[in-house]
Amino acid sequence: MIKVDSQAWAVMVAHAEAKFPNECCGAMIGKIDGDVKQVTSAEPMENAYAGAQGARYELRPEDLLEADKRARAAGLDLIGIFHSHPDCDAYFSKTDLENSCPWYSFVVLSIKGGKFDHANSFLPNAEQTAAEKEDLIWPKS
Amino acid sequence: MAKVLIPTPLRQYTEKHDSVDLTGATVGEVLGALTAKFPDLRKQLFNDEGKLRSFVNVYLNDEDIRYLKKDATAVAPADTLSIVPSIAGGSAGVAPPPLASLSNDEILRYSRHLIMPEVGMEGQLRLKNASVLLVGAGGLGAPLGMYLAAAGVGRIGLVDSDVVDFTNLHRQIIHGTKDVGRKKLDSAADTISDINPNVKIERYDTWLTSENALEIGAKYDMIIDGTDNFPTRYLVNDACVLLKKPNVYGSIFRFEGQATIFAFPGGPCYRCLYPEPPPPGLVPSCAEGGVLGILPGIIGLIQATEAVKLILGVGETLVGRLVLYDALAMRFRELKLRKNPECPACGDHPTITKLIDYQEFCGIPQHEPPPAPGVKEGEIDPIEVKRKMDQGEPFLLLDVREPHEYLICSIPTSKLIPLGDLPKRVNELDTATEIVAHCKSGVRSAKAVDFLKQAGFKKVKNMRGGILAWSDKVDPTVPKY
After folding, report:
1. From the CA of A17, how many Å to the nearest CA of chain B?
2. Which of B77, B97, B98, B436 is deepest in the core (most CB within 10 A)?
3. Does the beta carbon of B162 lie under 8 angstroms from any beta carbon of chain A?
4. Interface pTM (ipTM) of the complex?
């Protein structure tokens, strides 16, 4: 289960809505306590995908490396990646799966007409052939 | 000793160490030492062929070893190695295939779809799992229903409360001559089932209204507007905006048609294009103005194509583009449509937050107005007109239809002045003579009566129901059209 604190969630949604109609991406930082991943902060990152970004995103490994370093310095962990799906549902697409990594939770935010609609979290496998849905809890305002 | 930083998720394999000090002259040696020390880590970093997994990047200090010498990159004792995943993705490549399968019969039926990579098994399953609501089983609904069913759309909802009429048959090819008098829903469902028995058909024997539109529409992925009137167009549009579902739009008139996709999230809606309905009566319906029978075939199939593309998630859809088709010139044109930020339905600050009374909004009476009892003032029944004729009462029967309609049928002794010519030919009429005006069904002649009264004619009446009522009540040998 992954739980997102309200401040982190606000950052994620604001970033996703601001980048609409493009996809956004970023990292989620927090602590893992047993089965519960608690996200305490979110770091928006630049979508580094070279082509049209309406339906694609790419994270720069350097950015992730930096985020990981900062998290370590604060005694926290990088535990998830978030990105948005403009004007479509928060599924884990074939593209998502084929460019995923099994180490993190992948939170997908569906942004419809520029506004947050719904979200899901996924845990892809190492072979990048399937992703399991993970319970996602975000603050409902 | 070089330091290897372990990302959080991998620490379960490194006895919870967040960094490990290892010796090795190259990156390959250090990683070898790492996985020798923590064998469970190997599967996370390397595939069965012993190569680093595609998502694993190794950084020596701040540099990706792919741009150095890869595994052979030299490592100094003070160096830090980081394991960083490469992550990308996006909604492109669409949703994973839905959980369903095709039977062998279905595989055979859809084989010409399945061998196209743009459809394939995944796309065909997507079609099977898709649901569309067709509003109207008429001219546009006919090709839509038939082709969407044939293509394998799993669930089709039909909304129509009409009965098949002879005048429908020149274009509504989902119905046949044998179906005249049947409910359009039943006739259309029979045709669809015959084309593809795998399709689940849901019948709504009603008109779409503000009361039922959201409830019915919510059950479908998209709504396809195949209607011929403004209240329903605004109703379908607003319902789609509120439900966040695309409105696959088409309209036809005489030789021309239009198609686009409205209310696609982020795209324009019908109200962005037409904030206000035209005054009632300004834009004639197909029943009033006529339509080339083939035309709804073309426009309906453009709508069907767009619906299938939306379902498959392929190609460039008509969102933000209005296609205009002119059958006489055989020309397609295209207009760019923009979302209006001020749009009352889909703009930044929408004022339409629920469905309204669309009949009232469009300034027209309710869908099927109950016929007024008796004859209204200023109207005269065809039977009474016939009696006047038989008794030789002096009056002028004024036919205000078009000359080509006059050629189809006419009432003997009538004088033809088309409604549009009436102002310039009004001097042919005598204010002293009683005038009875008629048209096809009574709408245009009512306008003629209004005009004549304003021009000073006092003894003017409208023949109720037009020549259609004449055929029904007086002379059945007069053909109805």
Report:
1. 12
2. B436
3. no
4. 0.85
